[in-house]
Amino acid sequence: SVQSTIRAEEQIQNRNAFTRFLFGGDAEAGTQLNAEIVQNRARLQELKQLQNECECDSQVRSIFQEQIQNMELEQNRLNSLAQNEISSKGILGWLFR
Q1: Lowest CB count within 10 Å: 53, 63, 71, 76, which one?
Q2: Do the beta carbons of residue 1 and residue 36 sit within 8 Å?
Q3: Burial class of 45 by CB neighbour count within 10 A (0 to 12, 13 to 18, 19+)
Q4: Residues 6+ away with beta carbon under 8 Å from 61
């Protein structure tokens, strides 16, 4: 998941400014990123459930919670990036979508 997400994010960030201006964002990379986000959110739900079932001390539970929050923040950031990329149409983008 991480490698796929990194590739999609790099593809988005490496898109030529002129191409972006004319044709908009890379909808394919944005869609791929969205698919990874959906899978990662399902994994995060599983982690939350495991955290609730964990019979561990408060320090471990706190670290677990902090890591889950960091992952949620990253998923929110990636979601914004994907949505912006998909919604960016460009001057000629309507011709090709």
Answers
A1: 53
A2: yes
A3: exposed
A4: 51, 54
The interaxial angle of helices 2-13 and 27-53, nearest 10 deg, is 150
What residues contact residue 44 under an 8 Å CB cut-off, 6+ apart?
68, 71, 72, 75
The two tokens of residue 29 are 């990379």
pTM of the shown model = 0.84
Report how far residue 42's alpha carbon sits from residue 71's, in angstroms, rounded to the nearest whole number: 12
What is the rounded distance in angstroms from the CA atom of residue 57 to the CA atom of residue 61?
A: 6
